[in-house]
């Protein structure tokens, strides 16, 4: 049986040019690296995100592809992309998962563990 696994790492940075605290807009970029840690080629097909701010507002985002790509990754191969999110509070969290399909059409999910949306200077 094939070992199907995509591992994901995340880097977050504040986006000052998209942030306006007076209007309750706080923006963060995130860069995700997806690595095929399995032993079979597989493709990322779709994404789903849960974005929460400190006030408890939750945004659900679902869709095909990531930044217009549905990368087919060979074992050991990685794909990196950057995107961004905007929330109403200075801090929040994101978590999600990718819908993936192996070369022989076996469906699996790659989880992105919850990560913090915050400026490093805000963390004490």
Mind explaining what this structure looks like?
The chain has 124 residues and is mainly beta. Strands 3, 4, 5, 7 and 8 form a five-stranded antiparallel sheet that branches. It has a three-stranded antiparallel sheet with strand order 1-2-6, with no helix packed on it. A hairpin with a 4-residue loop joins β7 and β8. Helix content is 0%, strand content 59%. This is Co2+/Mg2+ efflux protein ApaG.
Write the layout of secondary structure elements.
Elements: E1 6-14, E2 26-36, E3 42-53, E4 58-64, E5 72-73, E6 78-87, E7 92-102, E8 107-117
Antiparallel strand pairs: 1-2, 2-6, 3-4, 3-5, 3-7, 7-8
Keywords:
124 residues, mainly beta, three-stranded antiparallel β-sheet, 8 strands, 0% helix, 59% strand, elongated
